From TrEMBL:
Protein known as: Cysteine-rich small domain-containing protein
Cysteine-rich small domain residues: 14-92
Record InterPro entries: Zf-like
One matching Pfam family: zf-like
Organism: Flavonifractor hominis
């Protein structure tokens, strides 16, 4: 039985590679996959330990994602798009923590 494709699979808006970028390639992709530059700055970064990627924290407390290819894989568009609601909720919670009065 054929598995139904996601709406974004095979669409140009879900994948592009910028080989003219002065930082290309910024990550080594597994198994010769092409690098997806769409999420050059990963929107999942702000989720901290809940991002789902391959990160580590430096002694300074900075999150280091240099070994992570999650946002750069062709198959990850759906995962990231589905995470935007979680990102919005996380940001709203942080705002409430900083200003509990809501002003």
């Amino acid at each position: 039985m054929d598995q139904e494709k996601e709406y974004w699979e095979g669409k140009s808006f879900a994948f592009f590679t910028n080989k003219a970028c002065e930082y290309y390639p910024c990550h080594t992709m597994p198994d010769g996959e092409e690098l997806n530059c769409l999420f050059c700055y990963c929107p999942l970064y702000m989720l901290g330990r809940e991002c789902g990627g391959n990160y580590r924290y430096l002694p300074s407390g900075i999150k280091d994602c240099s070994n992570c290819t999650l946002p750069h894989q062709r198959k990850s568009y759906g995962y990231i798009a589905k995470s935007f609601q979680r990102i919005a909720q996380t940001m709203a919670e942080r705002e409430r923590e900083q200003d509990p009065s809501g002003t």
